[in-house]
Structures are given as structure tokens and as C-alpha cells.
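Glutathione S-transferase, pasting as requested.
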Amino acid sequence: MGGKLLLGSRRYSSWSLRGWLAVRLAGLDVEEEVIPLKGKGQTVEIHKRSPNRLVPYLEHDGAHIWESLAIGLYCAEFCPALLPQERKARAHALSISAQMHAGFRHLRQLCPMDIGRSPAFPETLSDEEKENLKTDLTLLGDVILKALLRDGSPSYYLFGSEFGIVEAMYGPVMLRIKQYKLEPFLPSEVNKWVERGLSHPLMQEWVAKAEAEPDEWRLSYT
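C-alpha cells follow.
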């Protein structure tokens, strides 16, 4: 079985990271193609090739899958261990994965993924933006901590000892926490989980490839 995984610039595309992690964790045999992002939704090549005009987009053994969470669930069909098998734990994992897909809007907008950049932060935010970000971080900390402590004592990763679909969905958040130095806003157990996630070989591989992207792929900020 073969196929192709269409990605945007690794430096910026948080959704590409989510889909890529799931595909790699499942061991799918696909070719990866990275298209440099133009910014502001202006990457015409992606518009032409992806059904929802976004990345990631996976073609695999006749299947066409877009949206990161859908790709993650598809990958779990090939590697069931990527999601908990117990009914209640699986429901919990799916819920917080969907929450990441649809929520934490202020965190995603105010702290865009930009691997290798050291932003002037949070000094550049307005008081309202700071409060909105703090609200999202409080919720994030609560969501992750409850999952870590689900069985009483902290698990190594969410729902077990292995990096799975939930970690894939929250991988870009781990990078944001480190990049924007958001650790003081989160519980210590959550920060430990972030460090474990960032040390995973796939996360380190993505960062290394992002840092190696050509300078001409960089987006300018105004």
C-alpha cells in the first residue's frame, strides 16, 4: 500500500504536524510532499490539490482523507494502540482530541507556530488578549491534567505509556508552550508531559526538518 501526504511548511503548519505525527506513528507507507505556505490562505497549489483547500491531505490505498483529526482516526484503524481500547478512556481521548481540533482559539491565534522564532511575548499583547490567552491556558492545563491523572497517578503520556493520537493533536501546543515560555501558566505535571512529548523522536525530527527549510520559505511579519 502506498500513497502521498501533502503538508505545508513544517515551520508554520501546526495542522500538518498533527497529521504527519499520526501517519508516522501508524507506519503508513506514504510519500511526503511539503508545499511552502504563502500566508493568509494564499497558497494556490494547496487549493488545487486538497479537497478542503488546506493541509494536511492524505491519499492512501485508494482512500482520500483530509482534516487532521480524520487522518488520526484513519491511522488508528491500522494501529489501534494509538487510541485507548477501553470504552470510557477512548471516549475521553476522542473528546479532548476534538476539543483541540475546534477549541483553544485564542492560544492558536495569539501564539502561532513558528519554529525557530523567538517572539517578543507577551509584551506585544493587549490586556484583553492576555486575559483571553490566560483563560485558554487555564482550560488547557485542566484538560491535560485530568487526562494524566485519570487512573490516580500521573501517566507517562495521556492514556498510557505511548505517544498516541491525543499527543499528535496536542503536539503543536507543546511547541507553542516552549516557544512562548508559557510554562508558568500550567501545572507542573502538565509541563513534565510537555517535556516528554518534545523529547519524542518524531517531534525532534519535525523540528529539525523545520529548521532546515530554505530561508526563502520564511514568512515576513508586519
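Note for the archive: The longest strand covers residues 3-8.
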